Amino acid sequence: MDDQNLKDKQRELADDQMIEQAFKEVLDIYVASRHRKKVDIITKAFNFARQAHKGVRRLSGEPYIMHPIAVARIAVEEMGLGSTSICAALLHDVVEDTDYTVEDISNIFGEKIAQIVDGLTKISGGIFGDKASAQAENFKKLLLTMSDDIRVILIKICDRLHNMRTLQSQPANKQYKIAGETLYIYAPLANRLGLNKIKTELEDLSFRYEHPEEYDYIKGKLADTQAQRDVLFENFTAPIRAALDKMGIKYDLKARVKSPYSIWNKMQNKHVTFDEIYDILAVRIIYTPKERSEEINECFKIYVAISQIYKSHPDRLRDWVNHPKANGYQALHVTLMSKQGKWIEVQIRSDHMDEVAEQGFAAHWKYKEQGLESSVETVDEDSELNNWLSTIKEILDDPQPDAMDFLDTIKLNLFASEIFVFTPKGEIKTMPAQCTALDFAFQIHTFLGSHCIGAKVNHKLVPLSHKLQSGDQVEILSSKSQHVQASWINFVFTAKAKQKIMAILRRDNRELQKRGEQILDEWLRKNELEMTTPVLNKLCDLHEAKKHEDLFLMLGKRSVLLGDKDLDELRERKTDQNGGWRKFVPFLKKGDNKEGKKPQLFVVGEGFNKKKPVVINEENTSQYIFPTCCHAIPGDDIMGYIDNKNRIEIHRRDCSVASKLKASFGNRILDAKWDMHKVMFFDATIELRGIDRKGMLREISEVISDKLDVNMHRITISSEDGIFDGTIEIRVHDRSEVSVIMDELKKIEDLKEVLQIL
Fold it and tell me: Which residues 6+ apart lie within 8 Å of 273 measured at CB?
């Protein structure tokens, strides 16, 4: 026992030293920054949090207080935030995990820190009902507080980054949930706030946990090709260095290597191999201007100088200097042809632009008050960030009733690609790429959007659905007789327009539903029937309405009229001995005495262990649901999802539907693994494109049927102007067989593209 006490004492001393050292490093970084030195309140917050979390450990085994210290360090070191943010970061889990309340924090540390901590504290219950997504609820609360103080979301991103860095201690199902949520919401959010470095790390960490094999493969390929890139970089930049030295410019040249997640994403979207990606290397020129007032002029002088060394791509000049992105990003991007025959992108930015690109809006604030003594955590009223925050506020004022819709609406607003559109008076507006004339109308004013009948783009009349291009001048045409149409939702792109249209339609629909309910009530009473759930369910089934509200809406719109047929169906249902309706069974058809044969699906019971992976083999595949959204087959990285009926759906981890599920319903996510033995066959589709010639189809058939002995299920080929397109449906055991078939097909002469349809 004495030995145990001694070990505990030694461990406690080691922990204390580790905690003190970690906190000292945070303080040192803060003291070295340009913030007002409020060391006392930060130390007070640290001691308070340390005491509150005393004796608690993380899953990794380290003392819990190490997590808040790490979050505080990210806030000050990687975002450049000040004392208020550091205190809030240190205290961010106190209210949630201990007996202290927000009022206690307010009394001890002041209202501002308490407000931020409150915004970071998860909530129970909420607006979306019993089957709610807790994540959507907490994200909504986060956004509500964020719209008052941007530091809430910045600290949340710091918290998420540290959680991602320490994700290895979590079970696999939690890893998929946290990684999926990160990729779906937090990485786009970091990008929208200009936190490029953090966004990239969040994406790569998510990718590492969701697709470990692909991640390791790409990291390995990047390591193998490092020496080639180094030689290319040195050869390419040598004449650029000479030109910049001659001009007397103070500069730094850096090689930017595409991140593993970006490479994998491109491989998936473009259906190419690692070796076919040509923009893995980019060059960054970071210059310090002689005078701040000459910053932009110097940027273009560098562009002119390097364009005289290498030929530039005419369609690949991106001027983010004169027209910064909505997240504050500024740089001039030009793509040049190297002497080795490869296109290389060069990004030209000043030291200030580079800091903004890496640290986002936090860096903006530092530069707004150059000689600052005070804390710099304020935002310009007219900044792009505030415009974005006001849009978030509008969405939150009228939230979607469905958690998935709500998250989608927010995500839509986290656009990365912008265009610049002009009003008739020449004012410039930043809009997302893909936006329409109707989006622009709603951006200006809700009244204008809801009464829009068309637009003039560059003085030509266009419909509401016309997609805008950068540089367009747009005049919106409206009429008071115009009303919002349900079809508009199909072509608007921005979150603001979607949210406003949905809100107006919901308001109109509520009135129509009320009218429909009255019509139904009167009709039932007239026919001596009551409005009970079984009656409503039967009528919904007869008129193919998913919910009772849909039935009321159809009746209110007069798209459905009740008649004798409805009455006959309702009266045909016998009452049981208790006088109630007999339960309606959807599988039964008239004349059937028993249910149709269906595979018995596995149903999750009370004692089910969510931490253990679901293992799928030949015997149990019929017990799980394989949705058509991603068509998972053996060899794919997969996960399970417990649906509303406690059945298990199997999705590919990179499926778009699975991404939403991970972000919204993380507590229903399961790890899933294959244990197949090449016995069962699965359908897979390969798309082909190439130059049409005699014998092409025969060669394709020979490769698949004769050489590889694979069963072709269906083949479809069409040819036009000497180019053919086709799809082949094959029966395979797993995904690796598809890869072998594709590799063999790529060897056929004149077959230019071989793509896998997922």
Answer: 267
Helix locations, 193-274, DSSP H: 196-210, 212-224, 226-247, 260-270
- 8 A C-beta contact, residue 456 and residue 475: yes
Strands 250-257 and 343-350: unpaired
Give the other-Cβ count within 10 Å of 355's Cβ: 18
Residues in the chain: 758
State the pLDDT at residue 425: 82
Task: Report yes or no: 680 and 729 within 8 Å, Cβ to Cβ.
Answer: no
Whose tokens are 């499926």? That residue is: 655
The residues with which 346 forms a beta bridge, in sequence order, are 283, 334
Helix (H) or strand (E) holding 287: strand 281-288
As a whole number of angstroms, the distance between CA 151 and CA 75 comes to 10
The helix/strand/coil state of 648 is strand
Token reading at 312: 């530039």
Domains of the chain: 18-211 (1.10.3210.10), 218-368 (3.30.460.10), 417-493 (3.10.20.30), 504-572 (no CATH), 682-757 (3.30.70.260)
204 catalytic per annotation: no
Which residues share a beta bridge with 462? 455
Question: What is the model's pLDDT at position 376?
Answer: 37
Phi-psi region of 714 (alpha: psi -120 to 50; beta: other; left: phi over 0): beta
CA distance 599 to 616: 15
d(CA 740, CA 743): 5
Sign of CA dihedral 66, 68, 74, 77: negative
**Hunting for tokens 């808040």 — which residue is that?**
68
Interatomic CA distance for residues 106 and 103, integer angstroms: 5
Residue 257 in 3-state DSSP?
Answer: strand
Cα 463 versus chain centre, distance:
31
Yes or no: say if 513 and 545 are a contact pair by the CB < 8 Å rule.
no
Instruction: Extract the tokens encoding 745.
Output: 């097909």
Per the residue annotation, which of 62, 77, 97, 550 is the catalytic one? 97
Residue 153, pLDDT score? 84
**Cβ–Cβ under 8 Å, residues 333 and 166:** no
Structure letter (DSSP) for residue 216: H
Task: Mark whether 619 is an active-site residue.
Answer: no
Best CA proximity match to 254, nearest among 346, 189, 324: 346
Question: Residues with Cβ < 8 Å from 218, sequence gap 6 or more?
Answer: 260, 263, 264, 274
Tell whether the torsion through CA atoms of 26, 31, 32 and 35 is positive or negative. Answer: positive
Is 199 within 8 Å of 190 (Cβ atoms)?
yes
DSSP string, 691-723: E--TTHHHHHHIIIIIIS--EEEEEEEEEETTE
Q: Which of 12, 16, 96, 276 is catalytic?
A: 96
732 contacts 681 by C-beta, under 8 angstroms? yes
What dihedral do alpha carbons 33, 34, 36, 41 form, nearest 10°? Answer: -10
Token pair belonging to 15: 């922990």
CA distance 163 to 157: 10
How far apart are the C-alpha atoms of 301 and 299, rounded to whole Å?
Answer: 6
For the chain, which residues score pLDDT lower than 50?
A: 124-132, 365-382, 416, 574-596
Distance in angstroms (rounded) separating the CA atoms of residues 35 and 718: 67
Distance CA 570, CA 582 (A): 11
Between the two ends of the chain, the Cα-to-Cα distance in Å is 60
Name the residue type at position 478.
Answer: S
Q: Give the Cα separation of 399 and 396 in Å (integer).
A: 5
* SS3 assignment, position 435: coil
Decide: helix, strand or coil at residue 142.
helix
Tally of CB atoms within 10 A around 723 = 12
Q: Which residue from 104, 131, 6, 115 is spatially nearest to 48, judged by alpha carbons?
A: 104
Q: What is the DSSP string of 31-81?
A: HHSSS---HHHHHHHHHHHHHHTTT-B-TTSSBTTHHHHHHHHIIIIIS--
